[in-house]
Design brief:
mainly alpha; two-stranded antiparallel ribbon; 2 strands
Length: 140
C-alpha cells in the first residue's frame, strides 16, 4: 500500500469539515445550555408553585381548625346555658311546689283548728304520721 499524500485541497476540506463540526458542537452546546436554563426555570417555577400551594393549604387547615374550635365553643356555651336555664326552672318548680304545699298545709291547719274548736273539739298531733287531727267529744 502506498501512503497517500494530503493535498492542499484535502487539507482545506478537512479544515472546513472541522470548522463545521466545531460550529455544530457549539450549536449543540448552546442548545443544551438553553435547555438546562429552561429546565432550571421550570423547576424553580414548580418549586414556587408548590410552596404557594403548601402555604394556601396550611392557611385552609388553620381556618378549618379555628372554625371547628369556634363551633365547639358555641355548642358548649349553648348546652351550658341550657343546663343553667333548666336548673333554674327546675329549682323554681321545686321551690314553688314546696312553698305551695307549705302554704296549703298552713292554711288547712289554721282553718282546721278553728273549725275544730268551734265544733267543741281539740286538735292534737298524731304521733305516727305527725299530722294534726281534730278530736271531738262524743255526744250522747
Amino acid at each position: 500500500m502506498k501512503a497517500r499524500q494530503v493535498t492542499a485541497e484535502d487539507s482545506k476540506r478537512m479544515e472546513q469539515a472541522l470548522k463545521d463540526n466545531i460550529k455544530a458542537i457549539e450549536g449543540l452546546r448552546m442548545a443544551f445550555r438553553n435547555m438546562s436554563n429552561s429546565v432550571d426555570a421550570s423547576v424553580m417555577q414548580a418549586t414556587g408553585s408548590l410552596s404557594q400551594a403548601k402555604r394556601l393549604n396550611q392557611k385552609n387547615v388553620d381556618d378549618l381548625q379555628k372554625d371547628y374550635r369556634r363551633k365547639t365553643w358555641r355548642v358548649a356555651l349553648f348546652f351550658a346555658l341550657l343546663g343553667i336555664l333548666l336548673g333554674i326552672m327546675g329549682g323554681a318548680v321545686i321551690v314553688d311546689y314546696h312553698n305551695a304545699r307549705t302554704f296549703q298545709d298552713g292554711l288547712q291547719n289554721m282553718l282546721g283548728e278553728t273549725l275544730c274548736r268551734e265544733a267543741g273539739g281539740k286538735t292534737a298531733t298524731e304521733s305516727e304520721t305527725g299530722n294534726r287531727v281534730c278530736s271531738s267529744p262524743l255526744t250522747e
